[in-house]
């Protein structure tokens, strides 16, 4: 006799409206226009019109060119295609998709696993499994959280990796990047020739996983413009050139009077789809403005006087605006702002917190630390350049709590060689 048992489990069930909002939030420029055209094609009671773009009298202005993209797939599109053919559970599939959408332009995963999965009911374990899956995709090293992890992933996938390369990256990475060759030979029991083989192998690996994979050229257009008036007030305006989607009320009235039950059900469904589309468009626009306006408010000193960025993360924006962390992430990702004739990624206005006892709010941004590092290194004595430990000690004296490993990470981000290489280059 079959046993009957009851189980209680939680599942996230997204409504059609929520799916539509999530989908539209990530679309930009021509992609969103094409999406709206698809919706109009699917729904016969929708129509689309463009604003008048004819030049004004005496102006002679032409319509600005929209986003131009090459025919090749982006890194995200390539990874999503690879994900769709994987035989994994729905949870892992969703987690891996969220990881792919959170990769930065270099192919690194810098987001917090617990933040991007919370809106979908995914645990940290689910997200970690999704991240491990993405790290098996091409190009080797994609999805790594650090340069060390990127090198380790590539080493494990190479059959020609010399003996000891993986152990060096796992247990002796600090000595390796600081050039302590004698210590490495003693601790790992390697000969100078054996260590030399490992060094030559690691030199061939890519420090940025995306560099060899994404070679297409893409012309970007700003979605938002940040304006500053003569009195120093900052405002935000949209630069998106979207068509107007409207509902054919005349057809709705005509079919509603004379149509049978099936026809009336169809046109009522078409009306609901239109209302969902309008609501999703409005929510998308409002979310973009809310996020950018909060960034402008927090980073006003940077925009007006070129000062260092204040500590500000996506999590901070979500807490201040009431938006979800996932929504803020979608707004910031691959979206650009125009300010004083230059285009900036919105992500470039964000900065992580580091404790600083001398600051009024008790914190300093990573961008401010990197700016100070760049100035110190530019003015250093070529015979005694700043080492990473020297820089960490300097910041400690300035009441900035930052570890030496963090200094090394910042130096890698700025593409600055270590002190030994800088001394040789300047000599």
TrEMBL record:
Q: Which InterPro entries match?
A: Lambda_DNA-bd_dom_sf, RNA_pol_sigma_54, RNA_pol_sigma_54_core-bd, RNA_pol_sigma_54_DNA-bd, RpoN_core-bd_sf
Please give an example of a GO cellular component term from this record: DNA-directed RNA polymerase complex
Work out whether the entry's keyword set contains Nucleotidyltransferase: yes
Every copy of the RNA polymerase sigma factor 54 DNA-binding domain together lies at: 265-424
Task: Give an example GO molecular function.
Answer: sigma factor activity
What keywords appear on the UniProt entry? DNA-binding, DNA-directed RNA polymerase, Nucleotidyltransferase, Sigma factor, Transcription, Transcription regulation, Transferase
A Gene Ontology biological process in which this protein takes part is: DNA-templated transcription initiation
Q: Which Gene3D superfamilies match?
A: Homeodomain-like, lambda repressor-like DNA-binding domains, RNA polymerase sigma-54 factor, core-binding domain
A Pfam family that the UniProt record links to this protein: Sigma54_AID
Q: Which residues form the RNA polymerase sigma factor 54 core-binding domain?
A: 66-238
Family that this chain belongs to: Belongs to the sigma-54 factor family.
Q: Which PANTHER family does the entry mention?
A: RNA POLYMERASE SIGMA-54 FACTOR
Q: What is this protein called?
A: RNA polymerase sigma-54 factor
Q: Which species?
A: Megasphaera stantonii
């Amino acid at each position: 006799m079959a046993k009957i048992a009851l189980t209680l489990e939680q599942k996230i069930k997204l409504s059609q409206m929520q799916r539509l909002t999530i989908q539209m939030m990530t679309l930009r420029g021509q992609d969103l226009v094409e999406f709206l055209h698809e919706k109009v094609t699917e729904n016969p009671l929708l129509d689309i019109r463009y604003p008048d773009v004819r030049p004004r009298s005496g102006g002679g202005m032409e319509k600005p060119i929209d986003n131009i993209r090459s025919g090749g797939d982006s890194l995200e599109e390539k990874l999503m295609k690879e994900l769709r053919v994987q035989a994994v559970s729905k949870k892992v599939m969703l987690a891996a998709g969220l990881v792919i959408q959170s990769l930065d332009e270099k192919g690194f995963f810098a987001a917090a696993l617990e933040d991007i999965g919370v809106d979908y009911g995914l645990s940290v374990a689910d997200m970690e499994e999704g991240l491990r899956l993405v790290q098996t995709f091409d190009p080797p090293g994609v999805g790594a959280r650090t340069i060390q992890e990127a090198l380790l992933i590539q080493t494990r996938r190479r059959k020609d990796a010399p003996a000891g390369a993986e152990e060096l990256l796992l247990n002796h990475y600090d000595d390796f990047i600081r050039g302590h060759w004698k210590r490495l030979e003693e601790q790992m029991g390697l000969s100078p020739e054996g260590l030399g083989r490992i060094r030559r192998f690691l030199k061939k690996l890519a420090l940025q996983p995306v560099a060899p994979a994404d070679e297409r050229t893409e012309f970007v257009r700003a979605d938002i413009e940040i304006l500053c008036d003569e009195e120093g007030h900052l405002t935000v305006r949209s630069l998106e050139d979207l068509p107007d989607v409207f509902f054919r009320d005349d057809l709705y009235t005509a079919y509603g009077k004379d149509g049978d039950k099936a026809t009336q059900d169809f046109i009522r469904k078409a009306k609901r789809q239109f209302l969902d589309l309008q609501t999703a468009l409005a929510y998308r626009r409002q979310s973009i403005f809310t996020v950018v306006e909060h960034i402008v408010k927090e980073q006003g000193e940077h925009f007006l006087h070129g000062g260092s960025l204040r500590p500000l993360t996506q999590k901070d924006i979500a807490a201040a605006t009431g938006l979800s962390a996932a929504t803020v992430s979608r707004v910031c990702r691959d979206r650009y702002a125009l300010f004083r004739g230059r285009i900036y990624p919105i992500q470039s206005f964000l900065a992580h917190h580091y404790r600083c006892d001398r600051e009024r709010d008790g914190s300093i941004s990573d961008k401010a630390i990197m700016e100070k590092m760049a100035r110190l290194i530019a003015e250093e004595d070529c015979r005694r350049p700043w080492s990473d430990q020297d820089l960490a000690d300097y910041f400690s004296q300035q009441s900035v709590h930052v570890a030496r490993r963090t200094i090394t990470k910042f130096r890698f981000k700025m593409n600055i060689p270590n002190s030994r290489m800088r001394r040789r280059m300047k000599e």
